[in-house]
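Predicting holo structure, flavin mononucleotide bound.
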Amino acid sequence: MLSLNASPSSLTEEVRIADVVRTSMNSNRPLFIPVILGTVRVGRMSQHVARLMCGEIDKRAGVETELIDIAQMPLPISDAGEAIKNADFAAKMERADTLVIVSPEYNHGYSGLLKHVLDSCLKEYIHKPVGIVGVSAGPFGGTRVIQNLLPVMRELGLVTIFWDVNFSSVQNVFSSDGLLLDTSYIRRIEKFLNELVWMAATLRYGREQISLG
Ligand SMILES: Cc1cc2nc3c(=O)[nH]c(=O)nc-3n(C[C@H](O)[C@H](O)[C@H](O)COP(=O)(O)O)c2cc1C
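Done. Tokens:
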């Protein structure tokens, strides 16, 4: 995307960035974008959100996705961190080019079990972008849980994007069987995914082509 009034130096810079993304997008394998469903609660509305996110990702060319349900992960609670690494989850985090985390807001925070799962990996996350989707029964769309997740993401080596998706009053957004009732969310998800995919392609290029020195 070139702007007409760009100065020669910024024009060069934009061409370079566009080339970077194009090269990365065209290279070998599709971008892998798993969606982590961040609660184990029976009756969780976040499940509908996570499925919707996977469906919207799946519509795009050049990407692959998978829903990772933390309720299906047999992690022990007798220890924490990389000591309890799950081989399957770690392999998916290693393969991932970016993550989508769907997190409900529980007393303005995230589920303890989501944190337990995320803590089980570390090097697998480094220099990969993450987008957060907040889900709440109240009117703020999980903004407070997203704020609380930001420092955790940073410590894990993930790079947060500047778009979120906020599902407010989620009980009114989906029917009880998961049908999306408010289709205005599709446009918001599209903007979020545009940014996430750009970041995923750019950081993949960086990880593969640019040494840290
Ligand atoms: C322990 C607990 C704490 C909660 N705290 C909040 C809250 O701080 N703000 C809010 O808007 N909703 C809160 N909720 C409601 C959830 O946001 C609501 O259940 C929503 O559907 C997302 O969570 P779910 O995926 O578990 O359904 C809370 C729910 C639980 C179980």
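The CA atoms of residues 13 and 168 lie 39 Å apart.
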